């Protein structure tokens, strides 16, 4: 019976502490995630023996650590969404002009480009939603 008490206690503590550790998980696209990505690239450069790339990545890491803030990352993603919205509007206008001309080949190309722009906008919005602070 003495064996089971500590085991049950440790199991219970493990279950209750898991959400606490999950709260510290970095959000995708944040400064911590950016630094981790650069660190993994540095490790890959070390593995490959690419000293030049390793040096450049180490410089990028130090700059990211010095200048990165969650606010700046959020603003970058917001700008990316705005740029994608402008691109969708531009592609929609291109499609409208092609439809006025009646050229089926141009219309199909413009539709495809518009679909790609809309997909890029959706991806940018999804990334922004993932890094926005949770209320």
Structural account:
The protein has helices at residues 4-23, 31-48, 51-67, 70-101, 104-131. The protein has 135 residues and is mainly alpha-helical. It folds into two domains: 34-68; 70-135. Helix 2 packs antiparallel against helix 3 (51-67) and helix 4 (70-101) runs antiparallel to helix 5. Mean pLDDT is 81; it is low at 15-26.
- Give the proportion of residues in helices: over 70%
Whole-number tally of structural domains: 2
The pLDDT mean sits at 81
Shape: elongated
- What share of the residues does DSSP label as strand, in percent? under 5%
**Count of separate DSSP helical elements:** 5
Notable characteristics:
single chain; 135 residues; mainly alpha; 2 domains; elongated
Question: How is this structure best summarized?
Answer:
Helix content is 85%, strand content 0%. It has five helices and no strands. It has helices at 4-23, 31-48, 51-67, 70-101, 104-131.
Task: Give the secondary structure arrangement, pairings included.
Blueprint: H1 4-23, H2 31-48, H3 51-67, H4 70-101, H5 104-131
Helix pairs in contact: 2-3, 4-5
